[in-house]
Amino acid sequence: MVADRREPELPSLTIRSHHPESTKSIILAAPIINGGMGVGLTGPALAAEITNAGGGGVLTGVALGYPFQRILDKYLDEKPFEANRLALIEWIHDAKTRCDGGFVGVNLMVAVSDFKDLAYTSAKNGVDLIIAGAGLPMQLPEIVSKFPDTMIAPIISSVKAARVMVKKWLSKGRAPDAIVYESIHHSGGHQGGDVEDILGGLHQPEEVIGATRKLLDDQGLTDVPVIAAGGVWDRDDIVRYLSWGAQGVQMASRFLLTMEAGLEFGGAHLFKRLILENDSPTILERSPAGLPGRALSTPFSRRFAFQNNGSIVNEPHDCPSACLATCAKKDAIYCILAHLVEALRDNYEEGLFFAGSNLGVPGLARQVMPVSALMDLLKHGEPAPASVA
Known about the structure:
This protein is α/β, with parallel strands linked by helices. It has two domains: about 15-265 and about 365-380, TIM Barrel (Alpha-Beta Barrel), CATH 3.20.20.70; about 270-345, no CATH class. It contains 14 helices and 13 strands. It has helices at about 45-50, 65-70, 80-100, 115-125, 140-145, 160-170, 195-200, 205-220, 235-245, 255, 270-275, 300-305, 335-345, 370-380, and strands spanning about 15, 25-30, 30-35, 55-60, 105-110, 130-135, 150-155, 180, 190, 225-230, 250, 285, 295.
């Protein structure tokens, strides 16, 4: 017989708008949202199913026009930024339809050239929450001010960043509706700290989560949740982060191991296989965004790894869309957009496969399954070992 594995219910997560003209409040039955991965891994199929299973589904909203044009042959006659906008609108409406008008969020990068347009487009098309990182989204309250029911949350990686964002947004008459903390020691993709901070062990999760919670409480913002990300793989991780003062978690890499992840672009089968088979730690590599990125160790990422001191050679490339405001365009070390799309195309040699620090850790439960099954495991615990009566 199999032992009963049901664990006590996780608490719900409430996010409400602090716009002075809104009374909107959303309650997620499970305190789980997903991170916005890559340029197309978190699409409508994944986001909607997470919402349908009681969590909060979040779309990636960055540079979608490029994979739409290169893989789906859509919006081919549009200029890059217009293609980005049209693709994002399509995904928002698709996700809303799939979850019957339920919660849909969008994850955006402040560092992209069309951040303001993408944020405005997201709000205009009815997203419930915009999560913005890769830079501090100082102007986000003004950008979406006409849409009171679109909630907004900055991504921070340190207490200092949280303090700056709260002070800045309060000065604009708008408190954050949530704060997303991403650990520089655990989260996949771009990190909100330099390599020295990471190697020096600064900004540990327990410290930043607790201090950010206190910062909000001291400002009277007791109803603003802290949502913690990075290193969250199973229910035990969720419970631990909640015990440190978070009200919810954001998970990315684990949601890659679902049937719905990357479905719009073919299913990301190689990415999933690499996660299932990977037995090496993730590495930190250089990015044209000017931030270290955490990725699976592959031929491409190893070429630009930080341990390659003095041996980095810029890769000749075109600049298809001037996507990053901070990028040196054709003089950048490589085109990150092109290599993220190669990951979607199952190109092992040239793909950039961003992933969190759990990858390579032995003993983790790894299996591709539907979102509904994964959410059940996260809410109630992994199956207990079989025992003989």
